[in-house]
Amino acid sequence: MAHKNIIPFGPQHPVLPEPIHFDLVTEDEKVIDAIPSISYVHRGLERLVEKRDFIDMIHVADRICGLCSFMHSLGYCQAVEEIMGIEVPERALYLRSIWAELSRVHSHIFWLGVAADAFGFESLFMQALRLREPVLDIFEETTGARVILGVCKVGGVRRDIDDDTLKGIVSRLAALKKDLEELCNVFINDYSVRHRLSGVGYISRDDAYILGCVGPMARASGLAMDMRLTGYAAYKYLDVEPAVEPAGDCYARCLVRVREIFHSIDLVRQAVGKIPAGPVDVKVTGTPDGEYYSRVEQPRGEVIHYVKGNGAKFLQRFRVRVPTFNNIPAMIKVLKGAEVADVPNIILTLDPCISCTER
Amino acid sequence: MGWFKRSPWILHYNATSCNGCDIELIASLTPLYDLERFGIINTGNPKHADILAVTGSVNEKSTQVVRNLYDQMPNPKVVVAVGICATSGCVFQDCYNVQGGVDKVLPVDVYIPGCAARPEAIIDGVMKACEILEEKYAQRKKSGKLAES
User: Fold this and answer.
1) Fold of the domain spanning B9-142
2) Which of A68, A141, A222, A274 is most buried, by CB atoms within 10 Å?
3) A298 in Cβ contact with A218 (< 8 Å)
4) Which residue in B has a C-alpha nearest to residue A149's C-alpha?
5) Mutation test of the interface with chain B: which of A18, A21, A45, A126, choosing the one with the most B Cβ atoms within 10 A?
6) What is the mean pLDDT of chain B?
7) Which of B12, B21, B22, B23 to mutate to test the interface with A (most CBs of A within 10 A)?
8) How far is A223 from chain B, CA to nearest CA, in Å?
């Protein structure tokens, strides 16, 4: 029997943009155990509810994660609105969906780039990051910021987008779609990418269900779970169809995300076609008294925001359960028995967002 | 913009950032903003790096990592605090696990403002860091090669 070695992986590692640490127990080239240790980016922002009132907390919720910033403020605002019984205007709901889908597009393109970097395809990484910029330009024009948008507020959204700009967004996304098709063609059909990813990191449908996978990780194992089907924001008016792949390996997770990019572009087009005229916010009076779980589909899966208030200006409890946290057990299971060379791939196809996970 | 004879390499570490500054730092290294045209590339190895770009404020656990990375880098070296969290703590400065800006742990040479720091600001900050690096090289030359910069 071969000698056991422990290889530390992270917190600072060339393929990881974020700090997470694994102790990989290896035997020759096989990983036999992986012990994760976290809290390198723990800030403790949930406790900030004691110091910031429920309106100011939106800015903190915005900064839980830079990649899915809008989803976090959306989830928080939905929870507070539900407690306070605020009717959000239709136009605001549509605008929220549009920004959420654009966030998904930019997050998934970023992921494709980082994943390409992880399997050593540097030019593909550069191409993906180049194609992400048009989406960020749209964000900058419509919200004034590139990554942390800060447009969601309790009772609606801060900014309106006029109809000409909305039509412009659709045509720019259509132009972007052509470039993206070329890029995604490499991901789907390139021999070396396929060879590197298919069959690696397999999770069966049952395992994905038992271990509580969410988001693209679950959908790549054949579970059609998508919180957008619950119809929050304007998704009840749009044709949402979860992208499901049965294979369960890294390649399937890649395919799911590629399909979701195009589906999100289509959802933006649908939303722009149906958006009604009207106000974008309502006046908010009073304070939240009660509790609510709000469920939102992030680029990485389902995120839950739990908000509890007792009628005071400051909330009693704010809790976030993020998708990466749910996916870590499945990742550990897959890492056991994998080759050391496949570890970066497996970790990256999970699309870990450590900043959300540790908050 | 200062003259620099070398091509400094950047080491990036996310201390407790929210990812916003990290993706902007990566964006500034990729084709549209392209820091690479100045010969600056991103490296994963602290032993090859000249500039340490830290995003986010520091907490108890990341303090050790940041200091460790800094100690492994060869002299002379420059530390860049990217974003307002790395400068002062931003909205998180009241959090129980946030100690404040990176300057609590390391001597910071350049502060880049913004939440999230814009790529233009990052490019400007890194250019300033290059000037400081050049100065440190000049000082070291003056005071004899063996002396610490």
Assistant:
1) Rossmann fold (3.40.50)
2) A68
3) no
4) B116
5) A45
6) 84
7) B23
8) 29
The span from the CA of B51 to the CA of B128, in Å, is 11
Look at the domain A4-46+54-358 and name its fold: Cytochrome-c3 Hydrogenase; chain B (1.10.645)
Mean predicted confidence (pLDDT) in A13-34: 80
* Bridge-based pairing state of the strands A289-298 and A30-37: unpaired
CB within 8 Å of B29: residues ≥ 6 apart: B10, B35, B36, B40, B41, B42
Evaluate if residue A114 carries a pLDDT over 50: yes
- A43–B92: do the CB atoms touch at under 8 Å? yes
Map out the domains of chain B as residue ranges. 9-142
Tokens of A127: 């191409």
The secondary structure of residue A54, as a DSSP letter, is T
User: Binning pLDDT at 50, 70 and 90, where does residue A226 land?
Assistant: confident
pLDDT in tens, A302-349: 889 998 888 888 888 888 888 888 888 888 888 888 888 888 888 888
pLDDT at B149 over 50: no
- Joined tokens for residue A191: 């021999």
Give the phi and the psi of residue A46 in degrees, each rounded to 5.
-65, -30
H helical segments located in chain A: 57-62, 69-84, 90-118, 122-143, 163-189, 191-197, 205-210, 215-219, 250-274, 323-335, 343-349, 354-358
Q: What is the pTM of this model?
A: 0.89
The answer, yes or no, to whether residue B61 has pLDDT greater than 70, is yes
| Among A17, A39, A44, beta carbon nearest to B14 | A17
Q: Report DSSP state, residue A119.
A: T
Nearest beta carbon to residue A146 from set B12, B19, B118: B118
Dist. CA A71–CA A299, nearest whole Å: 9
Give how far B105 is from chain A: nearest CA, Å.
15
Residues of A in contact with B27 (CB under 8 A): 129, 132-133, 136
User: Cβ–Cβ of A39/B45 closer than 8 Å?
Assistant: no
Q: Looking at the complex, report in whole angstroms how far the Cα of residue B71 sits from the nearest Cα belonging to chain A.
A: 14
Given a contact cutoff of 8 angstroms between Cβ atoms, the answer to whether A71 and A215 are in contact is: no
Q: Is A329 on the interface with B (CB under 8 A)?
A: no
Contact B95 A39 (CB under 8 A): no
3-state secondary structure of A187: helix
